[in-house]
From TrEMBL:
Annotated active site: 81 (nucleophile), 190, 192
Gene: hisH
Chief location: cytoplasm
Recorded GO MF terms: lyase activity
UniProt pathway annotation: Amino-acid biosynthesis; L-histidine biosynthesis; L-histidine from 5-phospho-alpha-D-ribose 1-diphosphate: step 5/9
Organism: Stutzerimonas tarimensis
Record's protein name: Imidazole glycerol phosphate synthase subunit HisH
PANTHER family: IMIDAZOLE GLYCEROL PHOSPHATE SYNTHASE SUBUNIT HISH, IMIDAZOLE GLYCEROL PHOSPHATE SYNTHASE SUBUNIT HISH 1
Annotated localization: Cytoplasm
Alphabetical list of SUPFAM superfamilies matching this protein: Class I glutamine amidotransferase-like
Domain Glutamine amidotransferase: 6-205
Amino acid sequence: MQTVAVIDYGMGNLHSVAKALEHVGAGRVLVTSDAQVIREADRVVFPGVGAIRDCMAEIRRLGFDELVREVSVDRPFLGICVGMQALMERSEENGGVDCIGLFPGQVRYFGKDLEEDGESLKVPHMGWNEVKQAVDHPLWHSIADSDRFYFVHSFYVEATNPRQVVGRGHYGRDFAAALADGSRFAVQFHPEKSHTNGLQLLQNFAAWDGRW
């Protein structure tokens, strides 16, 4: 039976992610902060919620920045929400925070005066939103283009390399909803809260060989 390590650095909906993975039969799911267990896992999930400064402080304290660089190269790796933002080069949250830098680009604030067609939009962006599939990726299998996923975020990813943007969202402005590069895949939305589509994405991740 394959193992899926859910990285525990004290920030994130770890057990809801783990339960969703178990629900789709992903294998033996381990919520862990043990670096060796993570290294030995067949697949790795990197969730996150909360302030990026706090997240990156814990990630660096535990040495997980280097660990993420290591384990995301040779096996399927999934970043979720702030886990996705932490993979970028830098976030402007909290006055500016350097992140892990696996994907080129920045994390930007939606803004206090976000609006569209003369209508004010609330920040954080919270609720269901369409995701347009920019490319055909194995993790989109059996998920229709422009299907909806559940988001909770005040900051969005502005990716530098458009070829890595495999899913796009729009909320007052366009943003990267999903990124991919080799065995790495990352999403701004919460698949564990996205009902059928989210479970399908996790099932696809559990079956993915990490090639793209």
